User: Fold this.
Amino acid sequence: MKLEQLTSVLDFQGGSQPPKKDFESQPSKSNIRFLQIRDFKTDEKIVYIPISKKNRLCEKEDILIARYGASVGQILSGKEGAYNVALMKVIDKNELYKTRYLYYFFNSPYFQKNLLSRSERSAQAGFNKGDLSEIKIPVPSFQDQEKIIERLENTYKNINKSIEHDLAKINSLKVIFS
Assistant:
């Protein structure tokens, strides 16, 4: 299978950081949700910012990568809005990939180890677009990507069933021994 330099087949766009004074707590026609890393875990502290050409936007199906600190390398998806500077959006500029394939690639040990080894070079863990140019990515056919996605999703489904089964056993034992 052909391997390509990551930044030759994909683009990466960093977010923007409006001033905190512009943050709003309620949605309106003149603002947009402002996504920070924490927002992918909880909706407890939703923030909105004024709509602006400076905003970097993402849709629910887009893949974002956390760029800094303890969250570096986290692969995030499922929210839409304007994303902040601590996030970088993956852009399939050549339409070579299925989104689910990229999601699994970026979560793979191969990518994560490569990214983390590059992000540890500074005082605070982080990476930039240039660091990604050193990483290679396979370019399988759409048919092969579909097979890979199906296999991974079946594997995860089986793992989740096993976990649910084990948790049910643990709960039964807790009842018996309580």
Observations:
- The mean pLDDT is 90.
